Amino acid sequence: MSDKLFIFDTTLRDGEQSPGASMTKEEKVRIAKALERMRVDVIEAGFPIASSGDFESVQAVAREIKDSTVCGLARALDPDIDRAGEALKPAASGRIHTFIATSPIHMERKLRMSPDEVVKQAVRAVERARRYTDDVEFSAEDAGRSEIDFLCRIFEAVIAAGATTINIPDTVGYNVPEQFGAMVGRAIEGTPNADKAVFSVHCHNDLGLAVANSLSAVLNGARQVECTINGLGERAGNAALEEVVMAVRTRQDVFPCETGIDATQIVPGSRLVAGITGFSVQPNKAIVGANAFAHESGIHQDGVLKHRETYEIMRAEDVGWSANRMVLGKHSGRNAFRSRLQDLGVAFASEEELNAAFQRFKTLADKKHEIYDEDIQALVTETNLEHSVNERIKLVSLRVCSETGETPEANVTLWVDGEEKRGSAPGGGPVDAALKAIESIVDSQTELLLYSVNNITTGTDSQGEVTVRLERGGRIVNGQGADTDIVIASAKAYINALNKVVTAAERGHPQGPEL
Ligand SMILES: CC(=O)SCCNC(=O)CCNC(=O)[C@H](O)C(C)(C)COP(=O)(O)OP(=O)(O)OC[C@H]1O[C@@H](n2cnc3c(N)ncnc32)[C@H](O)[C@@H]1OP(=O)(O)O
Ligand SMILES: CC(C)C(=O)C(=O)O
Ligand SMILES: [Mg+2]
């Protein structure tokens, strides 16, 4: 019988360490629920000592998630561990993940501790974590540049102290597959009582080798892989969950283990994470990129039509793309729409949310001949966003005049706290004019850090999906909007971000902040 390969998702912790990818508590809970539907074994929800927001997010995820283990990260320090233990109290199944660096460079230059002190502190941390839970993971940070004998020594000590998972991170993405796999194999062989723990890996993608290194480790005995949706994470990111899962599943002739992942939830999960973080997925990204199952060239199309496996090693439907070619358009009804959402693995919290999405679908169908899966996912994201933020500002109408040789001019009407307000402004281009017209009304005092437009599908009637990132008082929020008119999509994204800024500020001022 094949072994179980545990999937430990760290999108909400290491993924959030991507500059600009910070998420609100509500967004983290939504992603955690998607991960639970995907049947991820462990969800690392955050680093509770990092901030009260992170503590509350881990606590909220711990409260909501029943079928996956919820994990909190802690340095090998008593206050970190106590904070993680506290945040995880509501969890049906909670894990404390404690770590300390073991490479010479980190011990000498960063921690300024001797190897003996590091072992002592690691043991103390694991023992303390065991006061809160039987499920304790220990990570040797920068294991990829650590000495193997020292790793075996510290692993033996923390297993004796009660660690049940031993993680070997390639923290700086320095390793190459053959060498990393051999290292993991040697660590397992050289650690007394290694059979009392699950060995895990956590690979970074600095050389583009995170997935390859993780898979090589699996071939050498690792039975947990730490990864993130879309490969999000510190610097160049972590191993991509979707790639690890599908490699193991597709090459069962190579891997002696199986994951428990429901792969049909992968594409919806990927879309959700991309929408919330504003980190869009490149079209040629394996598994979840828009082109991952698309065939453009004639010889390939001919082959696929004759026999799909000539050019496809996986089925699009197996990872959550809709294989159903039933066209959705303006004549489609609620049942077809609901059924397509089910195929796409999209769940709504209420009938009201479904109806809101259906209304958006009908409006879009009036403008666009054919509605693709990506369009539906975009409008679902928009519906969810509307329900998750307090909408004090709403777009009523937008008119932009743009003519060769003339300065574009925008006129906008907004509802602000139930009152209709109008504004106008010139701009460097139509989008600039539209955003300035909005600002002429709200004067938000925010700074625009990022503006990006993504074509959701092909064709000139495609929807543009816009992400904007705003900063006010050190708080950074992302806003998204989609429309067949990219100026309107931009205004929607900007207003979505402004509502988040307001919602965030309201937490500090219950009467509502000035706009
Ligand atoms: C590889 C990784 O991904 S590790 C996780 C990285 N993630 C993060 O750092 C995000 C959250 N971090 C934070 O919010 C902050 O860094 C905090 C709250 C954890 C700590 O903040 P501060 O107390 O201000 O410390 P600061 O970040 O400046 O420095 C880190 C300190 O922790 C020490 N440290 C680092 N790792 C560990 C560890 N695993 N165990 C014990 N101490 C550690 C460092 O040596 C340094 O100690 P020093 O202040 O005595 O020099
Ligand atoms: C905290 C650890 C596991 C980490 O993120 C790393 O080493 O990259
Ligand atoms: Mg990491």
Automatic annotation (TrEMBL):
It is an enzyme of class 2 (transferase). Its EC number is 2.3.3.13. Pathway: Amino-acid biosynthesis; L-leucine biosynthesis; L-leucine from 3-methyl-2-oxobutanoate: step 1/4. GO terms for biological process: L-leucine biosynthetic process. GO terms for molecular function: 2-isopropylmalate synthase activity; acetyl-CoA C-acetyltransferase activity; manganese ion binding. Its cofactor is Mn(2+). Mn(2+) binds at D14, H202, H204, N238. Residues 394-515 are annotated as: Regulatory domain. GO terms for cellular component: cytosol. Keywords: Amino-acid biosynthesis, Branched-chain amino acid biosynthesis, Cytoplasm, Leucine biosynthesis, Manganese, Metal-binding, Transferase. It catalyses: 3-methyl-2-oxobutanoate + acetyl-CoA + H2O = (2S)-2-isopropylmalate + CoA + H(+). Residues 5-267 form the Pyruvate carboxyltransferase domain. Pfam families: HCS_D2, HMGL-like, LeuA_dimer. Catalyzes the condensation of the acetyl group of acetyl-CoA with 3-methyl-2-oxobutanoate (2-ketoisovalerate) to form 3-carboxy-3-hydroxy-4-methylpentanoate (2-isopropylmalate). Belongs to the alpha-IPM synthase/homocitrate synthase family. LeuA type 1 subfamily. Homodimer. This is 2-isopropylmalate synthase. It comes from Thiohalomonas denitrificans. The gene is leuA.
